[in-house]
Amino acid sequence: MVWTHGVKSRELLHPFTTFRSKIQLWVYKRVHGVILYSEPNRKILAQYLKKPEKLFVANNTLDTEKLDEIYYELAKLGKRQVKEQLGFTHRYNLVFIGRLLKRKRLDLLFKAFETVQDRFDVGLHIIGDGPEEDTVHEFAKENKKVIYHGAIHDLALSSQYLFAADLMVMPGYVGLSAVHSMAMACPVITCNQGEDGPYHGPEAAYIENGKNGVLSAYSSTDFAKVILKTLTDTELLQKMSEEARKTISKEANLDKFVSGFEQAVNYVGE
Questions:
Q1: Of 146, 162, 181, 248, which one has the fewest beta carbons inside 10 Å?
Q2: What is the pTM of this model?
């Protein structure tokens, strides 16, 4: 069996066109079972195999049982109290959490935030470290509404920021940070993948546009518009928060992840 992404994110629109991916497809056709990270990749790969029934999905996720424990403890306190404990001073709060990499498009986020902050009393909290750390430091130095917290390795603490925030904002590559955010009832805003990117991880499949998060066009102007529209629609924001929790509970739980492997093993063993 093979456990794989199936199709690289850069090739989702044009699968199996590179030499490397053609070799991978050759392997997929010959193994007895293939376990994939997401349903969209299963659907793509199914079109290329004579036996699509040998494809199984183990939805990639985090320790959702631990995240649930954290969420329910925070829910007892309530959003207002958690915000006070964290020292949030702005009416609205956006959070970026993850490695500080170019593919996350922090440059696009900062341009969008400059537009958003002119309209609202809003703070942008950056959590993470990485190669783009100097860029974040510079922007935070120039803009007092940007708060850089550095990397937070304590899951309980980083979860507090997501629980207290209105939105998790990441224009570029989205991966497991989407699971973490949505588990804390924090909707995710990112950009929809096109020919020029962003090239998301399989976890971005959990985001349903307008239901539990929002997919923007790939520009700072559109990203800013989406943030502004979402923050002003209190009813929609509340619904998306609730749906984000439901999505992780139903689609990204550990039982479903394990079930994908069990189904594959049972199929191959028949």
A1: 146
A2: 0.94
